[in-house]
Write a structure and sequence with these properties.
240 residues; alpha+beta; 2 domains; 5-stranded antiparallel beta sheet; two-stranded antiparallel sheet
């Protein structure tokens, strides 16, 4: 399967949009006889949305994100608590479920998601993402592929996360300082040459709120002017 992984890495290198990342992983997963996958990036703050790239049914993923099921999902909770990959569902259960979680699994099963193999991804601040390969039943080929290719699948998950984080969902860390998502958005648009009024129009917030977020950015970065903050942002992008 070396050629499958090599092809996967090549496609990751060429990918710049969620759709191209989805196709790259979907193609590799099918080559390993794994019918579908989901990459979930967990929010640092409870109020922030999760981010998802997957081949799960669209009806389920839309419902999942809308209901913020990442806070309820036993698989994701287990990914928070474990560093090693794990299997779940239909004979591989490792969860003590609440009534709400049982309802959650019943809903997932209705969309053909009944069992899987999940790979937690963590950094020095804790869990940040998880990649799951899932199936509707515990087919022999599914189990065999997971058993034989655990190491490769883990490497694929880490590679996908690294490329997606760098190209799509850059962590809001600048000069060792963590910015809130809205602060980073305002700074990104300021770096693109937009005024506070224009940024407000783009993000659907007032000019006053925009200036409030940009003021927080300056204070966190320890600079006096927005131009200095933009310069730090540009320098960080060049180095990453």
């Amino acid at each position: 399967m070396h050629h499958v992984f090599q092809r996967f890495v090549e496609r990751l290198n060429d990918s710049t949009e969620p759709e191209s990342f989805q196709k790259a992983m979907a193609e590799a997963a099918l080559a390993f006889e794994l019918p579908c996958f989901a990459y979930l990036r967990m929010p640092r703050e409870q109020s922030a949305p999760a981010a998802l790239i997957s081949t799960y049914p669209a009806g389920w993923t839309e419902h999942y994100l809308k209901e913020h099921y990442e806070a309820l999902d036993p698989v994701i909770q287990s990914a928070h608590a474990h560093t090693e990959p794990f299997e779940w569902g239909l004979g591989a259960d490792m969860f003590e479920l609440t009534s709400s979680q049982k309802t959650f699994f019943d809903q997932a099963s209705a969309f053909g998601i009944r069992c899987g193999f999940t790979i937690p991804i963590q950094d020095n601040r804790g869990p940040i993402a998880a990649v799951t390969f899932a199936s509707d039943i515990r087919r022999h080929n599914f189990e065999r592929s997971v058993r034989l290719n655990r190491g490769v699948l883990q490497l694929m998950a880490i590679s996908l996360h690294a490329h997606v984080r760098r190209k799509l969902w850059r962590d809001p860390i600048l000069n060792g300082v963590e910015l809130k998502p809205r602060e980073l958005e305002c700074l990104q648009w300021a770096a693109a040459g937009k005024t506070a009024w224009e940024i407000g129009q783009i993000l659907g917030i007032s000019e006053r709120t925009t200036n409030f977020h940009l003021g927080n950015v300056r204070a966190k970065l320890g600079v006096c002017t927005l131009r200095q903050a933009v310069a730090l942002f540009a320098a960080a992008r060049t180095q990453s």
